[in-house]
Write a sequence for this structure.
């Protein structure tokens, strides 16, 4: 492995596990704050501090992650024209999300103008939502192709390859679950509404995404 971007992406990817752990902290504390806010304000205050600290920590851990989307487009945008089209929008959305998320973090901690935070948050969430929509479509296309291939292999009684396709499908369904959950969170920033912005919706969505990520990243 001699390519610098490849090395950097592999290095950055090692933080996915800690990100999912801290994401669990973030959204568990959000649910705790919502549940005890009226009856136990002191506990709610501490839970809120934990949630905010976890959110800011995750933004720091994600420094440089916008390069992942860039490298995916540079290295392997897909073989079929449709898949290349979807990959461009999915990875471009992810790049916008992570890049402006870095600026949002700098704004929140006071390195740059704090008044920029709302604008950075909106742009980041918009790119995030765009990326998730196209990633979800890509996953369903691959799942559909896998089902077709599985039926052929079952007719040939190739159990080993059938098992691999089934395992891959589980991982892709976990990715879809995480992307849908994160899409709900992004929509709460883009177009605030009573459903998406409710603490229970955000907390449950965050935990679905985090735990799907735990499953996908846990060493087999």
């Amino acid at each position: 492995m001699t390519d610098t971007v490849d090395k950097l992406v592999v290095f950055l990817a090692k933080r996915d596990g800690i990100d999912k752990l801290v994401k669990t902290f973030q959204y568990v504390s959000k649910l705790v704050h919502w549940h005890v806010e009226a009856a136990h304000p002191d506990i709610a205050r501490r839970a809120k501090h934990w949630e905010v600290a976890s959110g800011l920590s995750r933004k720091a851990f994600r420094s440089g992650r916008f390069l992942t989307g860039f490298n995916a487009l540079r290295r392997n945008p897909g073989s079929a024209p449709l898949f290349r089209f979807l990959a461009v929008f999915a990875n471009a959305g992810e790049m916008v999300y992570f890049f402006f998320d870095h600026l949002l973090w700098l704004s929140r901690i006071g390195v740059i103008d704090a008044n920029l935070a709302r604008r950075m948050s909106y742009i980041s969430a918009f790119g995030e939502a765009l990326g998730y929509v196209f990633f979800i479509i890509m996953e369903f296309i691959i799942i559909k192709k896998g089902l077709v291939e599985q039926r052929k292999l079952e007719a040939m009684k190739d159990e080993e390859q059938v098992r691999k396709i089934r395992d891959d499908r589980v991982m892709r369904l976990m990715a879809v679950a995480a992307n849908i959950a994160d899409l709900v969170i992004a929509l709460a920033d883009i177009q605030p509404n009573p459903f998406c912005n409710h603490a229970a919706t955000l907390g449950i969505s965050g935990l679905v995404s985090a735990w799907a990520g735990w499953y996908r990243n846990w060493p087999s």
